[in-house]
Design a protein that fits this description.
With 405 residues, the chain is of the alpha/beta class. The chain has four domains: 162 residues, 3-Layer(aba) Sandwich (Molybdenum Cofactor Biosythetic Enzyme, Chain A); 49 residues, Molybdopterin biosynthesis moea protein, domain 2; 85 residues, Molybdopterin biosynthesis moeA protein, domain 3 (Beta Complex), CATH 2.170.190.11; 74 residues, Beta Barrel (Beta-clip). Helices cover 19% and strands 32% of the residues. It contains seven helices and 28 strands. It has a six-stranded mixed beta sheet with strand order 7-4-6-5-9-8, with no helix packed on it. β24 and β25 form a beta hairpin. α1 packs across α6 and α4 packs across α5. The chain is elongated. The protein binds adenosine monophosphate and magnesium ion (MG). The site of adenosine monophosphate has 18 residues, from α3.
Length: 405
């Protein structure tokens, strides 16, 4: 057996970012930039008013009660054709460019409109008051996003704001997913003796999508060597990674093992964790001279889910250019219900639900039975507690929890 950390070094260390592509800024949410993004424009692009009010000369409004002549109204998107002279003002709306001559804006709440062209200002004005200066948010020449930066929705807004409509970025990975096993039924038909309904293909496809990848769903492949090999060789030409579920354990009918060993350079691992002990990682050479990773997950549903979380997800994130938070964050939590286990040299990942208590600490308790085939309790969990080797943890103990949501 190897430690989880060793397995992560093999798997995550064995994957590299894929070649960058040019991406439309609208598609950038959740993606990583592959080249510094340098602003070529200023935000805001000109001095403008932060409030609805009156553009004035501060030197005219040194005390409350001053009356000014109103030359006109300036709306956002419109430029005044006149200059504000001594004793003059202009009605102005948020975002409108400052008129020549004015150096302050008095908000509408601090003014009394006397007539169509006269206003009384009820408060002294300061130079620069309520003016948003050119480039206050972003300046031309600024590196707005460094290589490796993750773009969120606000980031897309910034890209649009500086007119960076096309961005050099890491692409969405195309990840092929298949499940193996003669016992699996996916089409809703009645179960024959010995059959079960498949859950991993459906679950892992959702997990791959949630990782920000495009899923190529290959369905269920029977335990048939020829069929599996043909499917893998074919899909390798049009994907960036392959995830398989099932057949990586010690069973006699593990055709996945036979086929993967033949077509790819594989490492078969037994990790000192529970669930999710077996894991296979390999590299498959494609006919277009790429090398793509294969993540061979075990068939037990909870094992496949946990090994995807611990190994495949961080590796896929690295391939998409992420440098930060490859792994889910962990927090120290308080155990609210005993976490029983036996000593076996492994870290046990226990499905838990965590909530913050009045003490400001995260409190966790298990969500039900912990067998590697028992997915129902996994569905209720928002974290995995890393219960260290030993006799388990008592109420009040501290435990590290990997947050899933
Ligand atoms: P395997 O890793 O193929 O030996 O499978 C281990 C266990 O997981 C067996 O009980 C399988 O029936 C079950 N299993 C394998 N694949 C799936 C799947 N896609 N959905 C649900 N259970 C599965
Ligand atoms: Mg199987």
């Amino acid at each position: 057996m190897i430690s989880l950390v060793e397995a992560q070094e093999i798997v995550i260390g064995g994957c590299e970012p894929v070649a960058p592509v040019i991406v439309d800024c609208q598609q950038m949410s959740g993606r990583v930039v592959a080249q510094d993004v340098v602003a070529t424009e200023f935000i805001p692009p000109f001095d403008n008013t932060a409030v609805d009010g009156f553009a004035v000369r501060a030197q005219d409004v040194t005390n409350a009660g001053i009356e000014l002549e109103v030359l006109g109204v300036i709306g956002a998107g419109h430029v005044a054709s006149y200059e504000i002279g001594a004793g003059q003002a202009a009605r102005i709306m948020t975002g409108a460019p400052m008129p020549q001559g004015a150096d302050a804006v008095v908000m509408i709440e601090d003014a009394t409109v006397l007539s169509a062209n006269r206003v009384q200002i009820n408060k002294p004005a300061r130079v620069g008051e309520a003016i948003r200066k050119i480039g206050e948010d972003v300046r031309a020449g600024d590196v707005v996003f460094k290589t490796g930066a993750l773009i969120n929705a606000a980031g897309i807004g910034v890209l649009a704001g500086i007119n960076a409509r096309k961005v050099m970025s890491y692409p969405k990975l195309r990840v092929a997913m298949l499940s193996t096993g003669d016992e699996l039924v996916i089409d809703g038909s009645e179960l024959k003796p010995g059959q079960i309904r498949e859950s991993n293909l459906t679950m892992l496809s959702a997990m791959i999508a949630a990782t920000g990848c495009e899923v190529i769903n290959l369905g269920i492949i029977e335990d048939d060597e020829q069929k599996l090999e043909a499917t893998l060789r074919d899909v390798a030409q049009r994907c960036d990674a392959i995830v398989t579920s099932g057949g990586v354990g010690q069973g006699d009918f593990d055709v996945v093992k036979i086929v993967l060993s033949r077509i790819a350079e594989m490492q078969w691992m037994q990790m000192a964790i529970k669930p999710a002990k077996p894991f296979a990682f390999g590299k498959l050479a494609t006919s277009d001279a790429r090398v793509i990773p294969i993540f061979g997950l075990p068939g037990n549903p909870v094992s496949s889910m946990i090994s995807f979380e611990l190994l495949a997800r961080p590796a896929l994130r690295k391939m998409m250019g992420h440098t930060k938070n490859l792994m889910r964050p962990t927090v120290r939590a308080i155990v609210d219900a005993p976490m029983k286990r036996k000593q076996d040299g492994k870290i046990h990942f226990m499905r838990v639900f965590g909530e913050f208590g009045d003490d400001g600490r995260l409190h966790v308790r298990d969500t039900g039975p912990q067998g590697s085939h028992q997915l129902a309790s996994t569905a209720l969990a928002n974290g995995l507690a890393l219960v260290p080797d030993g006799q388990g943890l008592a109420i009040g103990a501290e435990v590290e929890v990997m947050m899933l949501a």
